[in-house]
Amino acid sequence: MALSMLVFIPVFLYALFLDDLLRFALDAQEAAVATVWDYTVQDWAEPDKQGEYGGFSQVQGYARLMYCDHESGVDSYDDVDFDCKGEQHHEHAALTSHPCWLNTGAQQVECQAPDKQVGRLGVPIHNGYFDDYNNGGLIRCSARIGVQNYMLPQTLFPEFSKEDLAKEQQEGSIHGNAQAGDQDMQKTYLMPTEQMSILTDTWAINDDVTIEPGDKSGGDKGGEHFYKEVKSVYQDTANLGYPMLMASSAQFFSQAMSKQLLSPLQVGTLIAGDSDSPIKGDNPKSPNVSIKPFTNGMQTPSQKVEQAGQNRYFYNSEWRDWDKNNPQQSYGNRGVSYMGCKQPESC
Fold first, then answer.
1. Residue 315 backbone phi and psi in degrees, to 5
2. Which of 13, 218, 259, 294 has a 20 to 30 Å separation from 89 between CA atoms?
3. Which parts of the chain are beta strand (E)?
4. How far apart are the C-alpha atoms of 137 and 249, rounded to whole Å?
């Protein structure tokens, strides 16, 4: 029995230790994998607001506040001293060891700014728009946790074996031991670096844009940015259709003026630039955008357009196709809930 203890005791203790290492590796994996998916649902274009816990966007800051205590279940998100700087989260957290982002070689979850070269089509008009308006690209997140031994003796029965059972056993402050450094890696187990990447696109407008017919400034609530994007594509010199439009428009205006179908006041303004004429003549060389969010209180997604002194309402989306009206029926089934899921936690 005494001889068998030479095997049973180390195996039992080391099994507990390996179980802790496995959990800590999964915690680091969760930090990297879950954080990169946050970039698909959070507005990561917002700048970092978390100071030393942030990165190129606020998403990384929030992720670090969540995982700086090595798990995502119990967090205050605003008490940095409790979640991160204090050692309360290490109490009763493990039996044989403790993980820490402060260990030598460890790295708290960190994300790199989007690689904008990913997704380029090589088309001139696409490249120009891409450079001006797209903030998306390939985002990479990574994390690596370091673990120190707080239970296993470094050697066991040295009179029988000269092999170390574990790395040097630690005592006292977990953060203090981690920050003390371990250049020779005699005290720290470094888990594999966990990495995850995702290609995300931020060409979409985050705000509810409202642009009324005839308004070529962009209206309100983010409409100015939306209109500039449309105008950029429409009037980009790389768009071969725009020079053709310029030439044909000038010819059309000249003919209309010579046949006294258009006032010289209108024609002069329309030929000279892309703005509308002073008497509300629409210029075909500039885009005319009409868009309005379809809120729950609206009966139909329509906008008012003045024609011949009368107000008429037109659908601003493919609301009805006059056959089966599939968009209308889809909205009726889905409502304002994402994918029709009215209770997100249950879907």
1. -70, 135
2. 13
3. 97-100, 107-115, 137-144, 146-149, 188-190, 194-200, 302-307, 310-315
4. 38
Of 97, 89, 189, 98, nearest to 151 by C-alpha is 97
* 300-332: burial string, b at 16+ Cβ within 10 Å, e else: ebbbeeeeeeeeeeeebeebeeeeeeeebeebe
Tokens of 105: 């070689």
Tokens coding 87:
């050692």
Q: How far apart are CA 66 and CA 80, in angstroms?
A: 10
* Contact yes or no for 170/7 (Cβ under 8 A): no
Distance CA 171, CA 183 (A): 18
Contact 242, 231 (CB under 8 A): no
pTM (2 d.p.): 0.64
Q: What string of pLDDT tens digits covers the 347 residues of the chain?
A: 777 776 777 788 788 888 888 888 998 999 999 989 888 777 666 666 655 566 667 788 888 888 888 877 766 666 667 667 778 777 766 778 889 999 999 999 998 888 888 877 777 777 777 777 777 788 899 999 999 988 888 877 777 767 777 888 888 889 999 999 888 888 999 999 999 998 887 666 666 778 887 777 766 556 777 888 888 888 887 777 888 877 887 788 788 888 888 777 766 666 666 665 555 566 777 788 888 777 766 677 788 887 778 888 888 777 877 778 888 888 888 777 777 777 766 76
